[in-house]
Amino acid sequence: MTVLTSVAGFPRIGQNRELKRIIESYWKGAATLDEVRSTARSLRARHWQLQASAGIDLIASNDFSYYDQMLDTAILLNAIPQRYRRLAFDNPEETLFAMARGYQGERGDVTALPMKKWFTTNYHYLVPEIEPQATIRLNGTKPFDEYLEARSLGVETKPVLIGPYTFLKLARTPQAEELDYDQGLVNAVADVYAQIVTRFAELGAAWVQIDEPYLVLDKEPGDVELFKSLYARILPARTGKAGTVRILLNTYFGHIADVYETVNLLGFDGLGLDLNEGRDENLAAIERYGVNSATTIFAGVVNGRNIWRNDYTASLALIDQLREHTADVAVSTASSLLHVPFSTQGEDALGEDVLRHFAFAVEKVGETADIAALSELDAAGRATSPVLAANRALFDGTRTAADPAVVARLAALNDADFVRQPAREQRQREQREALGLPLLPTTTIGSFPQTGDIRAERAKLRHGDIDQAAYDAFMKERIDECIRRQEEIGLDVLVHGEFERNDMVEYFGQNLNGFLFTRNAWVQSYGTRCVKPPIVWGDVSRANPITVAWSAYAQSRTDHVMKGMLTGPVTILNWSWPREDITNEEQTRQLALAIRDEVLDLEAAGIRVIQIDEAALREKLPLRRSDWHKKYLDWAIPAFRLVHSAVKPTTQIHTHMCYSEFNDIIRDIDAMDADVISFEASRGDLVVLDAIHDADFATEAGPGVYDIHSPRIPSEQEIEERIDEILKKMDVEKVWINPDCGLKTRGEAETWPSLEHLVAAAKSVRARL
Ligand code: GLN
Ligand code: ZN
C-alpha cells in the first residue's frame, strides 16, 4: 500500500524574505518588474523542488502570490472594480498592486481594497469587491501558467484555488455589504471554476485542490444550497476532451460536521479534513455518515498553525481510526503552511535540544512524508522504526520542567482573586475625585512616534556601540520632551511614550521567564509585511519589574497623572507561539500573574492610572459562535480580571482594543471590569456606540475620535462633531477623548497638530456643557 502525501500550500515569502525585499524595492523604483518576476520564479522553483525531494506526491502550485491569494482569485474571476481598470496600466501586476495598496499618481488617485483577518490567523486578505455591473469570467492564466512552469521543471503539481463558496461568502458589494447570491452571479462564478477544472483535465493534471475554509463556520439559511448549487456545476466539469482531473475539496481551521453528510454525498474525489482544530467533530461525522466510496480522505494531521513537532504516534492513531471507515486515506497538512515560518535551519542560537522540538514549513513537509511512510508499516514495522522511536522520545517525559513557584501560585488562586472590589460604580466615583480629572478627560493610547533615531539607538545598544547608561539617558531625554509637549498642549492624562519598546509583545516576552526568540522565523501578516512572534517555551513568570522604573521616572517629571502602560495576558499569548503541552488557558493565567505583579509594583511606585492593552483579544475568538464562551471567553475574560483585581479602588485601570468590531461581545468586554476602555471607532463607529448604549455599558469609554492609521490631520471642528455624536449615545460622565490607537507609526509632523485639535475640541465641548 502506498499512501498519498499532500501539502496544502507553502509559504511564498522566501527563506530570507526575498519576495518582500524585491517587491518593496520595486515599489521604491529600485527594481524592475522583470526582476520581481524572476525572483518570484526562482522562489517557486525552489519551493517545488524542496517538496519534490522530500517525496511529497501532491505539491501545490498557484499557492504563490505577489500579495494575497484572495486578491488573485478576485482578479482571476475578473472582479476588478472600475476605478482600478480606469488606471489602464500596461502590466497586470500594476493593477494588482493598485488594488492591494491604492494608487496615487499621474493616472489617478484610488484607495486600496479593504483588508481583513483571514479566519483566526494573523494573516490578512483583501476583501474582493463585486460591482453590480461586474462581468464574472475567467481572466488571465495564472493557475495554468504556474502549473506548466512547474511541469517544465519536472515537478507535477496539484493546482490550488480558493473555492467559490469561500470567495462568495467573503466578497462584498461596493457598499461593503454581503452579496446577494442571485443565481446569475452564482452560476457565473461556478462556470469559471468549471472552466478552470476542465482546462486542468485537458492539461493532464491529476488533482485540483479547491479550498473551502468558510465551510467550517456556522451556516446561515441558504448557505448549504449555495454550496450545492456551485458544486453541481463544477463537479461534472472534471472530464475534459483529453482526460479527467480529480477534485480535492479542502477544509481547514475547524470542522465541517454540520455539512459533512451533504459534502460526502456529492462524491468529491478527495476531502481534506482538519484533524487538529476540528478533530473530534470531524471524526464523529465520519463515524456517523461513513465515507463515500469515491472519496479519499485527506487526513490533515500536520498542523499548519503551530511550530511544534508532530506527535507521530497520535497522528498514526488518527489515520488508523480513519481506516476503519475507508481504505483511501492520504496524509496531509491540515492547512496551508503559509502561516508558519520557513525553516528551523539557521536558528542555531536556540541549541539542538530546543530546536529538535520545532517544525517550521520545511520540517513539516518532512513530517508529512514520514507519517505517510510510517502508516504503511504494520505494528511490528512501527515497533522497530527508528524514525518513530526518535519522534516518540520528543514526547516522552517532560520537555521542560514545571516551575514550582508558578504551579503553587496558580493552585492557590481562588474565586476572589478574579474579582475586583468594590463595585465599579463606586470605584469610578472615587477615582474622579482622587485623580481630579475634568469631564471628557483627554489622553492618548500610549506610544508616540518611533522615529528612526530611536530605533537606531536601540540597535546601537544591541550591537554594543553604546552602554546601558547612555541608552537610558537618551530615552529619558525623549520622555522629558514628550511630557513637556503633552503638558504644553494640555492633555489631562499623560503617557511616557513607549520609546524603549520595540514591540508591545516582544518587549514583555524579553523581560519574562519562559520565552524564546528566533532570528529569522518570519510569517506573512499581509502583503510584504511579516511578523516574528516569540515562543512560549516554559512556565512564565516575571523575574524583575519591567516598566516600573520608566513609569516612575516619567511620573517624577510631571504633576499631571502619568499612565502606566502594559500589554495584557491574552494579547501576549495571541501574538506568540503558544505551548501545546499545557492549555492556552493555563498559559494565559501564568501571564496574568506575571503582569499582575507588574501592576502592583506600578501602583506601589505611585502610578495611579494603569492601562493594560488587550489589542488582540478578539483574534482567537473561535469561528463558531457556539464555542465563543466555553472555548475562549470563559477563561480569557477572567484572566484579564486576575491581572488587576488586587489594586486599590482609586487606582484606575484602563484597557485598549484595536478594533471596533466588538458589539457582539460587548457584555464580555464589560465583564473585564476595567474602569476605562479606549478603542478604534473610525469606521463602523455608530454600530459600536449603539451597542454601548443598548448594553448599558458600565466601563467608561474613549471611542477614538480620529484615525491614526492615516497621516491626515483632523480639524478641531471635525473632532468636535465626533464628540457630539458620541455624546448622543453615551453619558458624558463616562466619555474619554483620545485617538483610536497608539501613535507609534505616525510622524511628529502630524501627531502634535492632531492632538492640539483633539484637546481644543474637548475644551470647547466642555465649555458648552
Ligand atoms: N499602547 C500601545 C501603543 O500605543 C497599544 C498598541 C496597540 O493597540 N496595538 O502602541
Ligand atoms: Zn490599538
Q: Strands across the major sheet, in which order?
A: 1-12-11-10-9-8-7-2
The end-to-end span amounts to 80 Å
Radius of gyration: 27 Å
Question: How many strands appear in the DSSP assignment?
Answer: 22
Strand content: 5-15%
Shape: globular
Binding site for Zn(2+): 656, 658, 680, 741
Protein name: 5-methyltetrahydropteroyltriglutamate--homocysteine methyltransferase
Catalytic activity: 5-methyltetrahydropteroyltri-L-glutamate + L-homocysteine = tetrahydropteroyltri-L-glutamate + L-methionine
Binding site for L-homocysteine: 445-447, 498, 613
Secondary structure elements and their pairing?
Blueprint: E1 5-6, H1 18-28, H2 33-53, E2 59-61, H3 69-76, H4 82-85, H5 92-101, E3 103-105, E4 108-110, E5 115-117, E6 124-126, H6 142-152, E7 157-162, H7 164-170, H8 183-203, E8 207-211, H9 223-234, E9 246-250, H10 260-266, E10 270-274, H11 279-289, E11 296-302, H12 312-323, E12 329-333, H13 352-355, H14 361-375, H15 379-383, H16 386-395, H17 404-411, H18 424-435, H19 452-462, H20 468-489, E13 493-494, H21 506-510, E14 512-516, E15 523-526, E16 529-531, E17 535-542, H22 548-556, E18 561-567, H23 569-574, H24 584-604, E19 609-613, H25 628-644, E20 652-657, H26 666-670, E21 676-679, H27 685-694, E22 700-703, H28 716-729, H29 748-768
Parallel strand pairs: 1-12, 2-7, 7-8, 8-9, 9-10, 10-11, 11-12, 13-18, 18-19, 19-20, 20-21, 21-22
Antiparallel strand pairs: 3-4, 5-6, 14-17, 15-16
Helix pairs in contact: 1-2, 8-9, 12-14, 19-20, 24-25, 28-29
The structure holds glutamine (GLN) and zinc ion.
